[in-house]
From TrEMBL:
It is found in: Mitochondrion matrix, Mitochondrion nucleoid. PANTHER family: DNA POLYMERASE SUBUNIT GAMMA-1. Belongs to the DNA polymerase type-A family. One of its GO terms (biological process) is mitochondrial DNA replication. It comes from Gryllus longicercus. InterPro entries: DNA-dir_DNA_pol_A_CS, DNA-dir_DNA_pol_A_mt, DNA-dir_DNA_pol_A_palm_dom, DNA/RNA_pol_sf, DNApol_Exo, RNaseH-like_sf. Residues 91-121 are annotated as: Disordered. GO terms for molecular function: 3'-5' exonuclease activity; DNA binding; DNA-directed DNA polymerase activity. The lineage of its organism: Eukaryota, Metazoa, Ecdysozoa, Arthropoda, Hexapoda. Keywords: DNA replication, DNA-binding, DNA-directed DNA polymerase, Magnesium, Mitochondrion, Mitochondrion nucleoid, Nucleotidyltransferase, Transferase. Its cofactor is Mg(2+). This is DNA polymerase subunit gamma-1. Gene3D superfamilies: 3.30.420.390, 5' to 3' exonuclease, C-terminal subdomain.
Length: 1219
């Protein structure tokens, strides 16, 4: 038992094999106590209970701890198996036990110790605090007490040793108190069975309806003629057309058409069920007539949309439909849903929408490179043939061609896109037939793609999550139109100010024409300074009856009426040209900025000037690192670096086309030449620095991009170490360096773009004078609204009539404005199944200097309601970490990356973002971006570009070195190891281990075999994240990659690409898919769990890692508690699916749940911006909300989550009583 005694002496506690074994911390030798005490006895030293082990104890021996009812039974066989497992990890440690007063060995008090699991706290083998015992047993059931295998015991001990080696295993922090939460009884023996049961209850009825639709390959035959009748009309076989209030069937396929010229409201819709067809005609279409087109309405009532669950004039749901599961299918069905009347009502029924486009993306989604290849007109590459057979773009025509093998005629669509409403009415039959054709095509696609989806995503939670995501809802009130008006007004004011300042800069630059001063200007020297002369006539034209374009007739002028001093000019009036030139005497570049007199809204001066013009950076006299900006057509925007010598430089023939070297040498901070100031460390020479830099560049293989390490005249200076990109170009006596682009070698189209906002703020990109600074500041303020303005103004808002308001709100009077935005969310819009929506899901948080960035905060809850939401803390990092922990160590926090994720501290620099920041020399926020990019599959080159984006002054060599160092520390090195049967032969061929793919191939060829035959799959070693990346690549490279939580399969297009041998080509995409698709599984679990716990809470939207719900104000704290419990159950499910039947307390609950009247991210953020200068409190009367951790939430909600009752229970999965 020496190995066991040694481990107890070092660790103080051993909780392996399902047992907790501890010893006295102040004892001389564990063995001495074990030999002196009897089994089951305890001793107290220093008021600490000590459990004593007797190796001769019988199986019935009981070691009592502080609580008599809590005990472990330890048998001799158990102790022998533990000793054997520990001995393999510490084979010779038992002989090196520290002796009393030994100075050469570390004191046991100096080593990190595990906390006793006595009392309310539980810790695992590496000091990670776990769930309280009550929650642990409640979630994991019988599996909570199962004994781990000896393999997992050995893995845990290896993990502890690795953490000690890296200096990460420290004394545990202050324990996390038990919040006292009591959960409802699970719907199964453990959390895994619970989610399967709840997911089936929520998605099962809808899956049955969908399968009923898909059972028929075609819808019933459409009618031969459609009736132009307002509202819905039912067409059943062998029955006359029948007006109906809405389709009352439980499942139907729907398509809605909009006439763009008449606005965004629907004008026509068709639907099909297994028994009949339906057609809906809007009142505007039925009343349309020839003549001038009516102006589209700017405000829509919910009654302008088509009904699916209510009578036309009613404000409530029809009897029997509110709680009955019903499903509507469409292709990009969110577009159709946004034009359904009841979707704007405050209450949500049991109607759900299913998108065939989302189903197709799940089954056959494309990587970005594959999508570009399909859109390209070039011939297909041979290696793409395999995946092209199962791939298609997302349009209905492309998807129909893939699954049904037939083209789809979409020519009639132009009638709705470009035609007028009267034209649609005149061609009503063909327009309706086109709409019905889309319904039939969608039906056929559903029949093909639904079985594939259910096969590849078998867990019921996957479908339930898609159904819930399809019900996004954003209520708005009177604050919404106020926000739009304020944002537009401020936008116009700032834009006008910017134009005035740019016009002033253009006027100042125009003055350089005098004495050819522009030739000496570092910016304006290359502009077109040609002027247009005013040519006068030498002879008088023939007399005409009236003047045209400046040829003025005699009767228009009476010199006698002129002042005396101007009468002598009358004789010269005939010399004026017939067509007067625009601004004669002004340079051409200036004339291009001016409108001709007579133009609509003409104003004198350079009215056309804007920040998007090519001349604007020169007017603002912008510099990069102190060098003037310059534009070259082949390379885009860059800057000029002058040099003193002109050897090898061809002089320009036109002196005006040469940059002014004298002025450039005077203004630029660094030049090359004798006596020039270069960045040389003390004690080094310029030649030595140049030699070192040339060697580093050649070794890193970046000479081609740096373009000039050979020292020729066309090369850039070797002393330059900024962020400019060498391209081998020169302009006159200057080197030309490109501005760095976020995508690497691409050319920069405008330095005023938002990608350069960081460079402006850092002072790397700057302008001359206060006017330039103000223009740049205005540009920063306008950037968000300018990029999102059209999408925000185009939001379709349905305002509720009084009849559609809930009874509790009708009493507030006619002054209440309540409407809603139905976000057009594609439930699975990307390869990773992330939901996609162009405006709300990408909305940034409010920033003081960004006009319109308070967008989210202007979505306000209706009176008597509140938003409840939370941000999943480091969701994707935790997913990646737990995958590595489960695979490599079998315990939470068993890898360095997992430990940093769970126990790393920002305060002492042990969390992963702080570690990466120190390695890469960046801020912690910037390190967070680097970490996520690496986990998503980005490589060192992308990290290098990010580093240079964070710090534009960072040179290529230094950025490359930092990225390499960061990847060596985090990801490690990729190692090829020979298989056991080839190990001896590989040693003779050069070694059984190598870090080079080329060397592995060479050694395999020397043995007459392939690399895969001699070497196993390469693995990452030596990095803090090596175990995690090994597990991600194992999943990504599997024959049928599947998400680790819900078992969803990878797209067929990527699976086919893998089987065709494109492993390396698509590996980053597949690694990214594992993490992000796992995060989608997590979101689906949360949505299903929240609906189980709070069936009346209405899902609003998911913002990446955030979720927001709308609840009644009286239920806000119970909903907040349900969100905390949702996080707990979802993470516990993920852990159990990976074989970890426990969960760290640090990730069990949200850091905070926001309870607020606005949809802002932070409940205490006032969201003051240029368009909302007074903030939410003063400007809109919105008080700060609440940010509740689990302890505050338990206190406010009572700590007990009870099963829903009454009407709520009818909509929820059945819940049992609270335990």
């Amino acid at each position: 038992m020496e190995s066991l005694r040694h481990y107890l002496h070092i660790c103080g506690v051993c909780r392996v094999g399902g047992y907790r074994i501890s010893c006295a911390r102040n004892c001389k030798q564990t063995s001495s106590i074990a030999s002196k005490r009897q089994a089951g006895s305890t001793t107290t030293r220093g008021k600490k209970t000590v459990t004593v082990i007797d190796c001769n104890s019988t199986p019935s021996s009981v070691f009592r701890r502080r609580h008599p009812e809590d005990y472990d039974i330890v048998s001799p066989a158990t102790l022998r198996s533990l000793d054997h497992a520990l001995g393999e990890c510490y084979p010779s440690q038992s002989k090196q036990l520290p002796r009393k007063n030994s100075k050469s060995s570390q004191s046991s008090e100096d080593l990190p110790t595990s906390r006793p699991s006595e009392g309310p706290y539980r810790f695992n083998e590496i000091n990670i605090q776990m769930l309280p015992e009550s929650l642990h047993r409640h979630l994991f059931g019988a599996k909570a007490t199962a004994s781990p295998s000896p393999e997992l015991v050995r893995a845990a001990l290896r993990a502890r040793k690795e953490l000690q080696r890296r200096g990460l295993l420290r004394a545990p922090p202050a324990p996390i108190a038990d919040p006292g939460l009591r959960l409802p009884r699970l719907r199964g023996a453990d959390v895994e069975e619970h989610f399967r049961t709840v997911g089936e209850e929520q998605s099962g009825p809808y899956r049955a309806l969908l399968q009923g639709l898909a059972a028929a390959p075609e819808p019933p035959p459409p009618p031969a003629e459609w009736q132009l009748r307002v509202g819905w009309t039912r067409y059943a076989p062998e029955e006359p057309p029948l007006p109906v209030p809405f389709p009352a069937c439980d499942a139907l396929v729907l398509d809605v058409e909009v006439c763009r010229a008449a606005g965004e409201a629907p004008v026509l819709a068709t639907a099909a069920s297994p028994a009949a067809w339906y057609c809906w005609v809007s009142p505007r279409l039925a009343a349309a007539s020839a003549g001038p087109a009516a102006t589209p309405p700017r405000r829509y009532s919910a009654d302008d949309f088509l009904p699916l669950e209510s009578e036309p004039a009613a404000g409530t749901f029809a009897p029997g439909v509110f709680q009955r599961p019903r499903v509507v299918v469409g292709h990009n069905v969110s577009y159709d849903r946004a034009r359904v009347r009841e979707q704007y009502w405050l209450e949500r029924s049991s109607l759900r929408f299913v998108d065939t486009m989302s189903l197709h993306v799940c089954v056959g989604g494309l990587a970005s490179g594959q999508r570009a290849a399909l859109r390209s007109s070039a011939d297909a590459e041979p290696e793409d043939a395999a995946w092209r057979e199962v791939a298609a773009l997302n349009s209905l025509a492309d998807v129909h061609r893939l699954y049904c093998g037939a083209p789809l005629d979409k020519a009639a669509r132009d009638l709705f896109v470009t035609g007028q409403l009267a034209e649609v009415r005149a061609d009503f039959q063909s327009a309706t037939a086109y709409c019905a054709g889309d319904v039939a095509a969608t039906w056929r696609v559903l029949a093909k793609v639904l079985p594939l989806f259910l096969e590849r995503f078998p867990h019921p939670v996957s479908l339930a999550g898609l159904l819930e995501l399809g019900g996004a809802y954003l209520p708005v009130g009177a604050a919404w139109p106020r926000f739009l008006a304020s944002a537009e007004r401020t936008y116009d004011e700032l834009r006008a100010e910017s134009r005035r300042m740019l016009a002033r800069a253009a006027d100042d630059a125009c003055a350089l024409l005098h004495a050819h001063a522009y030739c000496r200007d570092p910016w304006m020297w290359d502009q077109d300074w040609s002027v247009q002369e005013l040519r006068l006539r030498k002879t008088a034209p023939k007399k005409r009856a009236s003047g045209t374009d400046g040829a003025v007739a005699d009767e228009d002028f009476d010199p006698e009426e002129w002042p005396e001093k101007f009468r002598n000019l009358a004789a010269t009036r005939y010399q004026l040209p017939a067509k007067r030139p625009l601004l004669p005497g002004y340079p051409a570049w200036y004339r291009n900025l001016c409108d001709r007199p007579g133009a609509e809204e003409w104003t004198p001066g350079p009215a056309r000037v804007s920040t998007g013009l090519q001349v604007t950076p020169k007017l603002l006299r912008l510099t990069w690192e102190g060098y003037p900006l310059h534009y070259v057509r082949e390379h885009g925007w860059g800057f000029l670096v002058p040099r003193e010598g002109r050897e090898g430089v061809e002089e320009a023939e036109d002196a005006a086309a040469k940059p002014p070297l004298t002025e450039l040498l005077a203004m630029c901070p660094v030049v090359a030449g004798a006596g020039a100031k270069t960045r040389v460390e003390e004690g080094e020479t310029a030649g030595e620095v140049e030699s070192v830099r040339r060697e580093v560049q050649e070794r890193l293989g970046w000479g081609s991009r740096r373009g000039g390490v050979d020292g020729t005249a066309s090369a850039a200076p070797l002393w330059y170490i900024g962020a400019g990109v060498r391209c081998g170009a020169s302009v006159g006596g200057c080197w030309f360096l490109k501005l760095p682009h976020k995508d690497g070698a691409a050319r920069v189209g405008s330095p005023m773009a938002r990608d350069f906002l960081g460079a402006f703020e850092a002072g790397v990109l700057a302008g001359a004078g206060p006017g330039a600074a103000r223009v740049l500041d205005v540009g920063r303020q306008l950037s968000y609204w300018r990029n999102n303005r059209e999408r925000v103004l185009g939001q379709l808002v349905g305002w509720l009539p009084a009849a559609a308001l809930p009874r509790s709100l009708r009493a507030r009077g006619a002054g209440l404005q309540l409407g809603a935005i139905v976000p057009q969310v594609v439930a699975a819009g990307t390869l990773t199944r992330r939901a996609v929506e162009p405006t709300w899901m990408t909305a940034a948080n409010a920033k003081p200097g960004r006009l319109g960035s308070e967008l989210r905060a202007l979505v306000h809850a209706p009176p008597g309601h509140a938003f409840v939401g939370a941000d999943v803390d480091s969701q994707e990092l935790w997913i990646a970490a737990v995958l590595g922990d489960a695979s490599a160590a079998g315990i939470h926090g068993g890898t360095p990356f997992g430990w940093m994720t769970l126990s790393g501290s920002k305060a002492d620099g042990t969390d992963m973002h702080s570690v990466t920041a120190a390695a890469a020399g960046v801020s912690r926020d910037e390190a967070k971006v680097l970490n996520y990019a690496r986990i998503y599959g980005a490589g060192p080159r992308f990290a290098q570009r990010l580093l240079q984006r964070f710090n534009p002054a960072l040179g290529d060599a230094e950025a490359r070195a930092r990225a390499t160092k960061m990847f060596a520390l985090t990801k490690g090195r990729r190692v090829w190891r020979a298989r056991p049967e080839w190990a001896a032969a590989a040693e003779d061929a050069g070694g059984a281990r190598t870090t080079s793919a080329l060397e592995a191939r060479r050694r395999a060829q020397a043995l007459g075999a392939t690399t895969d035959e001699v070497f196993g799959a390469p693995r990452w070693e030596g990095g803090t994240e090596s175990a995690m990346f090994n597990r991600l690549e194992e999943i990504a490279n599997a024959a049928h990659p599947a998400t680790p939580f819900l078992g969803g399969r990878l797209s067929r297009a990527l699976e086919a690409a893998v089987s065709a041998g494109d492993d390396d080509r698509f590996l980053p995409t597949r690694v990214n898919w594992v993490v992000q698709s796992g995060a989608v599984d997590f979101l689906h679990l949360m949505l299903v769990c929240m609906r189980w716990l709070q069936p009346r809470a209405r899902f609003c939207l998911s913002f990446h890692d955030e979720v927001r719900y709308l609840v009644a104000e009286r239920d806000r704290h119970r909903a907040a508690l349900a969100l905390h419990a949702t996080n707990l159950l979802a993470r516990a499910f993920c852990a159990q699916r990976l074989g970890l039947t426990d969960l760290p307390a640090a990730v069990a609950f949200f850091a905070s749940v926001e309870v607020d009247a606005a949809l802002r991210k932070d409940a205490h953020h006032d969201c003051a911006t240029p368009s909302n200068p007074h903030g939410l409190r003063r400007g809109y009367g919105v008080a700060p909300g609440e940010a509740l951790d689990v302890y505050k939430t338990v206190a406010r909600a009572g700590g007990v989550l009870r099963a829903p009752r009454g009407a709520s229970a009818a909509l929820a999965a059945p819940s049992a009583r609270t335990v």
